[in-house]
Write a structure and sequence with these properties.
- The radius of gyration is 27 Å and the shape is globular.
- The protein is built from 20 helices and four strands.
- Helices cover 67% and strands 6% of the residues.
- The two termini are 24 Å apart.
- It has helices at residues 6-26, 32-70, 74-80, 84-110, 121-141, 144-151, 155-183, 189-216, 236-248, 259-278, 282-287, 290-305, 309-326, 342-346, 387-400, 406-411, 438-465, 468-473, 476-487, 493-505; strands spanning 358-365, 372-381, 413-418, 430-434.
Length: 506
């Protein structure tokens, strides 16, 4: 079908997406013999919807350029149709601008009277070390060799430069993480505001560096094969026993006693990741034998058991293909993780950005004697911070900064209200806690932070799986499946960062 307008493509993409949703909802109710055909319809509808959305975005960009040329706005038209070299130059300018804001925020914080808050010596030392590493990015962006190579990037040079830029971006995210950790310590509101300024500018610099790395080593455009390959001759009789044996196999606990064992473990995962990526392509299924499919099943099951989100997504796709080709209904593996090798595979977490600073109005009073212990103040926080966490931090400030007595701390009532941009709008986020509730709030916050740390480690491993080679060969079905996998995670900065990455770089 020839499409000439992006509106038609968008409308048709929505229809294909509705067809995919309807087919997925009907699968559990369909007859077993009809599920294979219905699953094929669902897959093809999802692929077609993704292809049409990409076509619509491309046509919309071309239409914007043409309309601006016709209206005489040639400056805007040139900005929309800039060359890759111009795009890289603009990205480098964005890095320098955001880095200038980060330097100013860091200098303002270090010029304050209270630089190291209580019990923050270790975190401050880590932040100072990361700052020295991130400082290398300034000279790196302004090197003449970098400017010269950027005009004629090719092959290994582009990949090496993009990797170095990614490392600078990860250093900035680590810097933002340490600044956020220091901001949670008991200290004055002014110092906490300076730390949040450092955090926000570090996250903006990391975002600019990510965009520059993507432009420096862009993935090759994905080209789908027009001919549909013939499906392999697979039967439940030949494949069922092999999958059953692979399904019953127990994952072996890896021995990660030293660095050599960890490196061997990572090399094994990278080698198996090549196989997991091949499972998503139709050409692999034309050559796959029952033994190959059983081996892929055992491999993906093992890494899914260890917590790899990419392996878990691939295993679901593998189960769907086996059900489509043979009619086998295999239950998902219900094996708890035997160990937690995610930190070993990810090689250090990539801390997700927490967004701009949100301001809260906080007040504290003693209901017994009716005095106002803390006048209404403005406290900075992250966009993902819970209102009770802000109140608990105010309680810690009352204990360690204002030096209130223990009996007063138990009686105190703290009220926190989130500021809104519209003064006529009623605040939707408000918290009112008592001093006796603080311990319970801190235990709940510790559980949330532990869960968020685990999600961050999973997201880090997934980010390292979705490298430039993956983005060049990923099928629309694979991209949609990974998006659905990450959407099942608990809401948080790690989930938001992965979804943003998939939308911008695929």
């Amino acid at each position: 079908m020839a499409l000439r307008q992006d509106v038609d493509a968008e409308r048709l993409a929505r229809r294909y997406a509705d067809l995919e949703t309807a087919a997925r909802a009907t699968l559990p109710l369909a007859h077993p013999e009809a599920r294979r055909a219905l699953n094929a319809v669902r897959e093809r509808a999802g692929e077609r919807a993704t292809e049409l959305r990409r076509f619509a975005r491309h046509e919309r960009a071309a239409g914007d350029v043409a309309s601006n040329e016709a209206c005489g706005d040639r400056t805007l038209a040139r900005s929309l149709a800039h060359s890759p070299a111009q795009a890289r130059a603009r990205a480098r300018a964005a890095v320098r601008e955001s880095r200038g804001g980060l330097d100013a925020a860091y200098a303002a914080w270090r010029a304050g009277a209270e630089v190291i808050p209580r019990w923050g010596d270790v975190t401050f030392a880590a932040l100072d070390q990361v700052w020295s590493v991130a400082q290398e990015g300034v000279s790196f962006e302004s090197e003449p060799e970098f400017e010269a190579v950027s005009e004629s990037l090719n092959g290994a040079d582009a990949a090496a430069i993009a990797e170095r830029i990614e490392e600078r971006g990860e250093a900035c995210l680590t810097l933002a993480h340490h600044a956020r950790t220091l901001a949670a310590r008991p200290q004055s509101s002014a110092t906490r505001a300076h730390l949040h300024e450092v955090r926000v500018h570090a996250e903006h610099t990391a975002r600019a560096l990510r965009d520059l790395a993507h432009l420096t080593n862009p993935p090759l455009p994905y080209t789908a094969s027009s001919a549909r390959p013939a499906r392999p001759q697979l039967t439940a009789h030949t494949l069922g026993p092999l999958i059953a044996r692979a399904h019953l196999a127990r994952a072996v606990v890896p021995d990660l006693a030293n660095e050599q064992d960890c490196q061997r473990f990572r090399d094994t995962y990278r080698a198996d990741r090549v196989l997991m990526r091949a499972v998503w392509h139709h050409t692999w299924w034309t050559r796959a034998t029952p033994d190959d499919i059983a081996h892929a099943w055992a491999t993906t099951s093992r890494w899914a058991t260890f917590g790899s989100a990419y392996a878990a997504t691939t295993l679901r796709h593998l189960r769907g293909r086996v059900r489509q080709y043979t009619g086998l209904e295999t239950r998902p593996p219900n094996q708890p993780p035997l160990t937690d090798p995610i930190p070993t595979l990810a090689i250090g977490p990539i801390h997700p950005p927490h967004g701009d600073t949100v301001w809260w109005r906080c007040a504290a009073h003693d209901p017994t004697t009716r005095p106002q212990l803390l006048a209404e103040t403005r406290e900075p926080a992250t966009a993902w911070e819970h209102p009770d966490d802000v109140a608990a931090r105010v309680h810690a400030d009352l204990e360690h900064v204002h030096r209130l007595r223990p009996d007063v701390l138990r009686r105190v009532h703290i009220t926190t209200t989130r500021e809104v941009g519209d003064p006529n709008r009623h605040p939707t986020h408000q918290s009112h806690i008592r001093g006796t509730d603080v311990d319970h709030i801190r235990r709940k916050a510790a559980q949330r932070h532990q869960h968020e740390h685990h999600v961050t480690q999973r997201a880090t491993l997934l980010r390292r799986d979705l490298d430039t080679a993956w983005r060049s060969n990923a099928t629309p079905t694979e991209i949609n499946a990974i998006q659905r996998e990450t959407q099942t995670w608990a809401p948080g900065p790690a989930r938001s960062d992965i979804l943003t990455f998939l939308q911008r770089h695929t």
